[in-house]
Amino acid sequence: MPIARAVKRAAVRLGAVALTGALLAACGGSTDDTSSDGAGGKVTVTVDLFGSFGYKEAGLYAEYEKLHPGVTIKQTDTEDEADYWKSLQTRLAGGGGLADVQGIEVGRIASVTQQQADRFTDLRKYGADALKDQFAPAKWAAATGKGGEVLGLGTDVGPEAMCYRTDLFKQAGLPTDRDELAKKWATWDGYLELGKQYKAKATGKSAWLDSVGSLYSIMIGQEKERYYDASGKLIWEDNPALRTAWDHSVEAAEGGLSAKLDQWSPAWNQAFAAGSFATIPCPAWMLGYIKGQAGESGKGKWDVAPLPGGAGNWGGSYLAVPKAAAHKKEAYELIKWLTAPEQQSRLFEKQGNFPSATGAIEKVAGAKDPFFSDAPIGKIFGDAAKAAPVQVLGVHDQNIAQQITNALSEVERKGTSPEKAWSNAKKGVANTIG
Questions:
Q1: Where is this region: Disordered (predicted)?
Q2: Are 273 and 297 in contact, with CB atoms under 8 Å apart?
Protein backbone atom coordinates (compact mmCIF):
# COMPACT_ATOMS: atom_id res chain seq x y z
CA MET A 1 0.00 0.00 0.00
CA PRO A 2 -0.27 0.37 2.07
CA ILE A 3 3.28 2.86 -1.80
CA ALA A 4 2.71 4.07 -1.47
CA ARG A 5 1.29 2.13 0.96
CA ALA A 6 2.51 4.58 0.27
CA VAL A 7 1.71 4.32 -2.37
CA LYS A 8 1.25 5.41 0.62
CA ARG A 9 1.40 3.22 -0.54
CA ALA A 10 0.15 4.59 -2.33
CA ALA A 11 -2.97 4.07 -2.80
CA VAL A 12 -3.42 6.23 0.30
CA ARG A 13 -6.24 7.11 2.64
CA LEU A 14 -6.91 9.66 5.40
CA GLY A 15 -8.47 8.79 8.73
CA ALA A 16 -11.40 11.17 8.87
CA VAL A 17 -11.04 14.30 10.99
CA ALA A 18 -14.74 14.33 11.71
CA LEU A 19 -15.29 10.81 13.01
CA THR A 20 -18.74 9.28 13.20
CA GLY A 21 -20.59 9.18 16.46
CA ALA A 22 -20.09 5.44 16.70
CA LEU A 23 -16.34 5.75 16.25
CA LEU A 24 -16.09 8.53 18.81
CA ALA A 25 -18.01 6.46 21.29
CA ALA A 26 -15.63 3.57 20.73
CA CYS A 27 -12.31 5.38 20.75
CA GLY A 28 -12.17 8.13 23.31
CA GLY A 29 -9.05 8.75 25.30
CA SER A 30 -9.19 5.60 27.40
CA THR A 31 -5.87 4.28 28.63
CA ASP A 32 -7.06 1.01 30.13
CA ASP A 33 -7.99 -2.27 28.48
CA THR A 34 -11.75 -1.98 28.85
CA SER A 35 -13.18 -4.69 26.64
CA SER A 36 -16.90 -4.01 26.60
CA ASP A 37 -18.86 -1.40 24.68
CA GLY A 38 -22.10 -2.48 26.21
CA ALA A 39 -24.17 -5.37 27.49
CA GLY A 40 -23.03 -8.86 26.67
CA GLY A 41 -19.35 -8.03 26.39
CA LYS A 42 -19.61 -6.92 22.78
CA VAL A 43 -16.71 -4.88 21.47
CA THR A 44 -16.42 -2.50 18.53
CA VAL A 45 -12.82 -2.34 17.36
CA THR A 46 -12.21 0.76 15.26
CA VAL A 47 -9.64 0.78 12.46
CA ASP A 48 -8.40 3.95 10.73
CA LEU A 49 -6.43 3.42 7.51
CA PHE A 50 -5.10 5.06 4.39
CA GLY A 51 -4.76 3.43 0.99
CA SER A 52 -5.99 0.11 -0.25
CA PHE A 53 -5.18 -2.23 2.63
CA GLY A 54 -7.86 -4.53 1.23
CA TYR A 55 -9.01 -6.20 4.45
CA LYS A 56 -12.69 -5.43 3.94
CA GLU A 57 -12.55 -6.21 0.21
CA ALA A 58 -10.87 -9.57 0.81
CA GLY A 59 -13.51 -10.54 3.39
CA LEU A 60 -11.05 -10.69 6.28
CA TYR A 61 -13.07 -8.46 8.60
CA ALA A 62 -16.18 -10.56 8.04
CA GLU A 63 -14.25 -13.74 8.74
CA TYR A 64 -12.72 -12.34 11.92
CA GLU A 65 -16.13 -11.25 13.18
CA LYS A 66 -17.45 -14.76 12.48
CA LEU A 67 -14.55 -16.27 14.43
CA HIS A 68 -15.08 -13.76 17.27
CA PRO A 69 -18.87 -13.33 17.65
CA GLY A 70 -18.59 -10.51 20.18
CA VAL A 71 -16.40 -8.32 17.96
CA THR A 72 -17.53 -5.77 15.38
CA ILE A 73 -14.95 -4.00 13.24
CA LYS A 74 -15.57 -0.48 11.95
CA GLN A 75 -13.09 1.02 9.46
CA THR A 76 -12.62 4.63 8.37
CA ASP A 77 -10.34 5.67 5.52
CA THR A 78 -9.69 8.13 2.72
CA GLU A 79 -7.22 8.50 -0.15
CA ASP A 80 -4.68 11.13 0.94
CA GLU A 81 -1.92 9.79 3.18
CA ALA A 82 -0.46 13.25 3.77
CA ASP A 83 -3.78 14.47 5.16
CA TYR A 84 -4.16 11.23 7.10
CA TRP A 85 -0.80 11.76 8.79
CA LYS A 86 -1.56 15.41 9.59
CA SER A 87 -4.89 14.44 11.14
CA LEU A 88 -3.29 11.60 13.09
CA GLN A 89 -0.69 13.98 14.54
CA THR A 90 -3.42 16.33 15.72
CA ARG A 91 -5.31 13.51 17.39
CA LEU A 92 -2.19 12.02 18.96
CA ALA A 93 -1.33 15.41 20.45
CA GLY A 94 -4.83 15.81 21.86
CA GLY A 95 -5.22 12.20 22.93
CA GLY A 96 -8.78 11.89 21.64
CA GLY A 97 -10.55 10.75 18.50
CA LEU A 98 -8.07 7.94 17.92
CA ALA A 99 -9.04 4.55 16.55
CA ASP A 100 -8.05 1.33 18.25
CA VAL A 101 -5.89 0.50 15.23
CA GLN A 102 -4.03 3.13 13.20
CA GLY A 103 -2.24 2.44 9.93
CA ILE A 104 1.31 3.77 9.61
CA GLU A 105 2.98 4.15 6.20
CA VAL A 106 6.56 2.88 6.02
CA GLY A 107 7.81 6.40 5.27
CA ARG A 108 6.44 7.49 8.67
CA ILE A 109 7.51 4.56 10.83
CA ALA A 110 10.84 6.17 11.79
CA SER A 111 8.91 9.14 13.14
CA VAL A 112 6.90 6.77 15.32
CA THR A 113 9.89 4.84 16.64
CA GLN A 114 12.20 7.82 17.12
CA GLN A 115 9.83 10.62 18.14
CA GLN A 116 6.44 9.22 19.18
CA ALA A 117 7.05 5.91 20.91
CA ASP A 118 5.37 7.24 24.04
CA ARG A 119 2.09 7.66 22.15
CA PHE A 120 1.81 4.10 20.92
CA THR A 121 1.35 0.82 22.78
CA ASP A 122 4.37 -1.42 23.19
CA LEU A 123 2.88 -4.60 21.81
CA ARG A 124 5.28 -6.73 23.83
CA LYS A 125 2.72 -6.29 26.62
CA TYR A 126 0.48 -8.69 24.70
CA GLY A 127 3.21 -11.10 23.60
CA ALA A 128 4.21 -9.57 20.25
CA ASP A 129 7.89 -10.33 20.79
CA ALA A 130 7.07 -13.99 20.09
CA LEU A 131 6.14 -13.00 16.52
CA LYS A 132 9.57 -11.69 15.56
CA ASP A 133 10.60 -14.69 13.46
CA GLN A 134 7.34 -14.46 11.52
CA PHE A 135 8.46 -11.29 9.70
CA ALA A 136 11.30 -10.31 7.40
CA PRO A 137 14.08 -8.93 9.66
CA ALA A 138 14.08 -5.45 8.08
CA LYS A 139 10.30 -5.17 8.38
CA TRP A 140 10.39 -6.07 12.06
CA ALA A 141 13.37 -3.86 12.90
CA ALA A 142 11.84 -0.74 11.33
CA ALA A 143 8.96 -0.77 13.84
CA THR A 144 11.18 -1.42 16.87
CA GLY A 145 11.77 1.49 19.25
CA LYS A 146 15.05 2.54 20.82
CA GLY A 147 14.28 0.54 23.94
CA GLY A 148 13.14 -2.54 22.06
CA GLU A 149 9.46 -1.55 22.03
CA VAL A 150 7.35 -3.26 19.38
CA LEU A 151 5.29 -0.35 18.04
CA GLY A 152 3.56 -1.96 15.07
CA LEU A 153 3.10 -5.17 13.13
CA GLY A 154 4.03 -5.24 9.46
CA THR A 155 1.36 -5.61 6.80
CA ASP A 156 2.71 -5.59 3.26
CA VAL A 157 5.85 -4.53 1.48
CA GLY A 158 6.01 -2.86 -1.92
CA PRO A 159 8.21 -4.83 -4.35
CA GLU A 160 8.08 -3.08 -7.70
CA ALA A 161 7.19 -4.06 -11.26
CA MET A 162 5.68 -2.38 -14.32
CA CYS A 163 1.99 -2.76 -15.16
CA TYR A 164 0.95 -2.11 -18.74
CA ARG A 165 -1.99 -2.25 -21.15
CA THR A 166 -1.40 -4.93 -23.76
CA ASP A 167 -4.24 -3.66 -25.96
CA LEU A 168 -2.74 -0.16 -26.14
CA PHE A 169 0.73 -1.56 -26.80
CA LYS A 170 -0.64 -3.64 -29.65
CA GLN A 171 -2.40 -0.63 -31.18
CA ALA A 172 0.87 1.29 -31.12
CA GLY A 173 2.83 -1.57 -32.69
CA LEU A 174 4.85 -2.34 -29.55
CA PRO A 175 5.57 -5.87 -28.32
CA THR A 176 3.24 -7.17 -25.62
CA ASP A 177 5.22 -10.16 -24.32
CA ARG A 178 6.36 -9.43 -20.77
CA ASP A 179 9.74 -11.16 -21.20
CA GLU A 180 10.51 -9.27 -24.40
CA LEU A 181 9.54 -5.99 -22.77
CA ALA A 182 11.72 -6.74 -19.75
CA LYS A 183 14.69 -6.94 -22.12
CA LYS A 184 13.77 -3.79 -24.03
CA TRP A 185 13.31 -1.74 -20.86
CA ALA A 186 16.08 -3.32 -18.83
CA THR A 187 17.19 0.27 -18.13
CA TRP A 188 15.19 3.43 -17.53
CA ASP A 189 16.66 4.90 -20.69
CA GLY A 190 15.16 1.93 -22.54
CA TYR A 191 11.81 2.54 -20.88
CA LEU A 192 11.75 6.19 -21.94
CA GLU A 193 12.83 5.26 -25.48
CA LEU A 194 9.87 2.90 -25.75
CA GLY A 195 7.73 5.73 -24.44
CA LYS A 196 8.85 7.96 -27.28
CA GLN A 197 7.96 5.23 -29.76
CA TYR A 198 4.56 4.85 -28.13
CA LYS A 199 3.89 8.57 -28.27
CA ALA A 200 4.71 8.64 -32.00
CA LYS A 201 2.35 5.77 -32.85
CA ALA A 202 -0.39 5.74 -30.22
CA THR A 203 -3.93 6.48 -31.29
CA GLY A 204 -6.26 8.75 -29.35
CA LYS A 205 -5.11 10.67 -26.30
CA SER A 206 -3.36 7.87 -24.45
CA ALA A 207 -0.03 8.81 -22.81
CA TRP A 208 2.89 6.51 -21.99
CA LEU A 209 2.58 6.78 -18.20
CA ASP A 210 0.21 8.26 -15.66
CA SER A 211 2.45 10.85 -14.00
CA VAL A 212 6.12 11.65 -13.56
CA GLY A 213 5.54 11.55 -9.81
CA SER A 214 4.96 7.81 -10.02
CA LEU A 215 8.08 7.43 -12.15
CA TYR A 216 10.17 9.27 -9.56
CA SER A 217 8.68 7.26 -6.68
CA ILE A 218 9.37 3.91 -8.29
CA MET A 219 12.94 4.87 -9.24
CA ILE A 220 13.88 6.22 -5.82
CA GLY A 221 12.43 3.02 -4.36
CA GLN A 222 15.34 1.15 -5.96
CA GLU A 223 17.86 2.91 -3.73
CA LYS A 224 19.13 1.95 -0.28
CA GLU A 225 19.90 5.54 0.71
CA ARG A 226 17.47 8.16 -0.50
CA TYR A 227 16.91 11.07 1.86
CA TYR A 228 19.09 10.05 4.80
CA ASP A 229 22.26 8.01 5.13
CA ALA A 230 22.73 5.23 7.67
CA SER A 231 23.99 7.69 10.29
CA GLY A 232 20.78 9.73 10.09
CA LYS A 233 22.29 12.60 8.12
CA LEU A 234 20.14 14.33 5.49
CA ILE A 235 21.69 13.63 2.08
CA TRP A 236 18.85 14.12 -0.38
CA GLU A 237 20.15 17.33 -2.00
CA ASP A 238 23.50 15.77 -2.90
CA ASN A 239 22.38 12.18 -3.49
CA PRO A 240 23.30 11.29 -7.09
CA ALA A 241 20.74 8.48 -7.17
CA LEU A 242 17.98 10.93 -6.30
CA ARG A 243 19.14 13.35 -8.98
CA THR A 244 19.09 10.52 -11.53
CA ALA A 245 15.47 9.78 -10.63
CA TRP A 246 14.70 13.51 -10.85
CA ASP A 247 16.39 13.89 -14.24
CA HIS A 248 14.57 10.92 -15.78
CA SER A 249 11.27 12.23 -14.44
CA VAL A 250 11.98 15.66 -15.89
CA GLU A 251 12.83 14.06 -19.23
CA ALA A 252 9.48 12.25 -19.25
CA ALA A 253 7.65 15.47 -18.37
CA GLU A 254 9.36 17.62 -20.96
CA GLY A 255 9.01 14.88 -23.57
CA GLY A 256 5.24 14.83 -23.19
CA LEU A 257 5.17 11.19 -22.09
CA SER A 258 2.89 11.74 -19.11
CA ALA A 259 -0.89 11.95 -18.83
CA LYS A 260 -0.31 14.67 -16.20
CA LEU A 261 -2.64 13.07 -13.70
CA ASP A 262 -2.51 13.65 -9.97
CA GLN A 263 -2.30 10.25 -8.35
CA TRP A 264 -5.35 9.32 -6.26
CA SER A 265 -7.44 12.07 -7.90
CA PRO A 266 -10.86 11.28 -9.44
CA ALA A 267 -9.43 11.89 -12.92
CA TRP A 268 -6.61 9.42 -12.24
CA ASN A 269 -9.08 6.83 -10.99
CA GLN A 270 -11.19 7.17 -14.13
CA ALA A 271 -8.12 6.92 -16.36
CA PHE A 272 -7.58 3.24 -15.54
CA ALA A 273 -10.76 2.28 -17.34
CA ALA A 274 -10.51 4.98 -20.01
CA GLY A 275 -7.07 3.89 -21.26
CA SER A 276 -5.52 7.30 -20.64
CA PHE A 277 -2.08 5.79 -20.11
CA ALA A 278 -0.31 2.63 -21.25
CA THR A 279 2.05 1.96 -18.34
CA ILE A 280 2.13 2.62 -14.64
CA PRO A 281 5.05 1.91 -12.28
CA CYS A 282 3.48 -0.70 -10.11
CA PRO A 283 4.33 -1.81 -6.57
CA ALA A 284 2.47 -4.97 -5.63
CA TRP A 285 -0.23 -3.14 -3.67
CA MET A 286 -1.21 -1.28 -6.85
CA LEU A 287 -2.65 -4.46 -8.38
CA GLY A 288 -5.77 -4.40 -6.24
CA TYR A 289 -6.22 -0.70 -6.89
CA ILE A 290 -6.02 -1.19 -10.65
CA LYS A 291 -8.61 -3.97 -10.49
CA GLY A 292 -10.96 -1.78 -8.52
CA GLN A 293 -10.68 1.18 -10.89
CA ALA A 294 -10.49 -0.66 -14.22
CA GLY A 295 -13.35 -3.01 -13.39
CA GLU A 296 -14.27 -6.27 -15.10
CA SER A 297 -13.88 -4.69 -18.55
CA GLY A 298 -10.16 -4.36 -17.84
CA LYS A 299 -9.62 -8.07 -17.23
CA GLY A 300 -7.06 -9.47 -19.68
CA LYS A 301 -6.05 -6.03 -20.97
CA TRP A 302 -3.40 -5.56 -18.30
CA ASP A 303 -0.13 -7.40 -17.76
CA VAL A 304 2.88 -7.18 -15.43
CA ALA A 305 6.58 -7.25 -16.32
CA PRO A 306 9.79 -6.87 -14.29
CA LEU A 307 10.82 -3.31 -13.56
CA PRO A 308 13.47 -1.35 -15.48
CA GLY A 309 16.70 -0.76 -13.59
CA GLY A 310 16.46 -3.62 -11.11
CA ALA A 311 14.47 -4.37 -7.97
CA GLY A 312 13.07 -1.84 -5.56
CA ASN A 313 10.45 -1.21 -2.90
CA TRP A 314 7.75 1.46 -2.83
CA GLY A 315 5.56 1.54 0.20
CA GLY A 316 4.34 -0.95 2.71
CA SER A 317 2.68 -0.30 6.04
CA TYR A 318 2.21 -1.18 9.69
CA LEU A 319 -0.71 -1.54 12.04
CA ALA A 320 -0.22 0.18 15.39
CA VAL A 321 -2.27 0.64 18.56
CA PRO A 322 -2.27 4.12 20.16
CA LYS A 323 -1.91 4.32 23.91
CA ALA A 324 -5.20 6.23 23.95
CA ALA A 325 -7.05 3.40 22.19
CA ALA A 326 -10.17 2.22 24.01
CA HIS A 327 -9.62 -1.48 23.28
CA LYS A 328 -5.91 -2.14 23.11
CA LYS A 329 -5.97 -5.88 23.82
CA GLU A 330 -8.72 -6.54 21.27
CA ALA A 331 -6.93 -4.31 18.78
CA TYR A 332 -3.74 -6.32 19.22
CA GLU A 333 -5.56 -9.62 18.72
CA LEU A 334 -7.05 -8.26 15.49
CA ILE A 335 -3.77 -6.99 14.03
CA LYS A 336 -1.97 -10.16 15.08
CA TRP A 337 -4.53 -12.14 13.07
CA LEU A 338 -4.56 -9.78 10.07
CA THR A 339 -0.76 -9.87 9.76
CA ALA A 340 -0.40 -13.64 10.22
CA PRO A 341 1.07 -15.52 7.23
CA GLU A 342 -2.25 -17.15 6.36
CA GLN A 343 -4.09 -13.84 6.08
CA GLN A 344 -1.19 -12.09 4.33
CA SER A 345 -1.03 -14.79 1.66
CA ARG A 346 -4.79 -14.62 1.05
CA LEU A 347 -4.64 -10.85 0.85
CA PHE A 348 -1.98 -11.06 -1.85
CA GLU A 349 -3.96 -13.57 -3.87
CA LYS A 350 -7.11 -11.41 -3.71
CA GLN A 351 -5.75 -7.85 -3.62
CA GLY A 352 -2.07 -8.00 -4.62
CA ASN A 353 -0.66 -6.70 -1.32
CA PHE A 354 2.69 -8.50 -1.12
CA PRO A 355 3.31 -10.08 2.29
CA SER A 356 6.00 -9.16 4.79
CA ALA A 357 5.50 -12.40 6.72
CA THR A 358 8.15 -14.86 5.58
CA GLY A 359 5.83 -17.85 5.66
CA ALA A 360 3.35 -16.05 3.42
CA ILE A 361 6.03 -15.19 0.85
CA GLU A 362 6.65 -18.89 0.34
CA LYS A 363 2.93 -19.60 0.03
CA VAL A 364 2.38 -17.13 -2.85
CA ALA A 365 5.46 -18.00 -4.96
CA GLY A 366 3.40 -19.67 -7.68
CA ALA A 367 0.53 -17.20 -7.78
CA LYS A 368 -0.81 -15.98 -11.13
CA ASP A 369 -3.45 -13.34 -11.76
CA PRO A 370 -6.05 -13.81 -14.51
CA PHE A 371 -6.94 -10.12 -14.46
CA PHE A 372 -3.34 -9.36 -15.44
CA SER A 373 -3.23 -11.87 -18.31
CA ASP A 374 -2.17 -14.68 -15.96
CA ALA A 375 1.05 -12.85 -15.12
CA PRO A 376 3.17 -14.86 -12.65
CA ILE A 377 2.85 -12.20 -9.99
CA GLY A 378 4.14 -14.46 -7.21
CA LYS A 379 7.45 -14.89 -9.02
CA ILE A 380 7.75 -11.32 -10.38
CA PHE A 381 7.09 -9.64 -7.06
CA GLY A 382 8.78 -12.39 -5.05
CA ASP A 383 12.01 -12.00 -7.03
CA ALA A 384 11.76 -8.22 -6.61
CA ALA A 385 11.21 -8.54 -2.86
CA LYS A 386 14.28 -10.76 -2.48
CA ALA A 387 16.50 -8.42 -4.50
CA ALA A 388 15.21 -5.07 -3.20
CA PRO A 389 17.62 -3.10 -1.01
CA VAL A 390 17.01 -2.72 2.71
CA GLN A 391 16.21 0.98 2.72
CA VAL A 392 17.45 3.51 5.22
CA LEU A 393 14.35 5.11 6.76
CA GLY A 394 14.39 8.66 8.09
CA VAL A 395 12.03 10.71 10.21
CA HIS A 396 10.99 12.98 7.33
CA ASP A 397 11.17 10.59 4.37
CA GLN A 398 7.55 11.08 3.39
CA ASN A 399 7.65 14.86 3.77
CA ILE A 400 10.71 15.18 1.54
CA ALA A 401 9.26 12.83 -1.07
CA GLN A 402 6.07 14.87 -1.18
CA GLN A 403 7.94 18.12 -1.81
CA ILE A 404 9.93 16.56 -4.65
CA THR A 405 6.87 15.09 -6.35
CA ASN A 406 5.10 18.45 -5.94
CA ALA A 407 8.02 20.11 -7.72
CA LEU A 408 7.98 17.54 -10.52
CA SER A 409 4.28 18.21 -10.95
CA GLU A 410 5.15 21.86 -11.58
CA VAL A 411 7.44 20.82 -14.42
CA GLU A 412 4.86 18.37 -15.76
CA ARG A 413 1.72 20.50 -15.55
CA LYS A 414 2.84 24.13 -15.45
CA GLY A 415 5.97 24.06 -17.58
CA THR A 416 8.12 25.30 -14.69
CA SER A 417 11.82 25.01 -15.46
CA PRO A 418 13.57 22.10 -13.73
CA GLU A 419 15.95 24.53 -12.02
CA LYS A 420 13.11 26.60 -10.57
CA ALA A 421 11.18 23.49 -9.57
CA TRP A 422 14.23 22.06 -7.78
CA SER A 423 14.65 25.33 -5.92
CA ASN A 424 10.99 25.17 -4.92
CA ALA A 425 11.50 21.62 -3.65
CA LYS A 426 14.39 22.76 -1.46
CA LYS A 427 12.30 25.60 -0.03
CA GLY A 428 9.39 23.23 0.55
CA VAL A 429 11.55 20.75 2.42
CA ALA A 430 13.06 23.52 4.56
CA ASN A 431 9.60 24.83 5.45
CA THR A 432 8.24 21.37 6.17
CA ILE A 433 10.96 19.87 8.32
CA GLY A 434 12.59 23.03 9.63
A1: 415-434
A2: yes
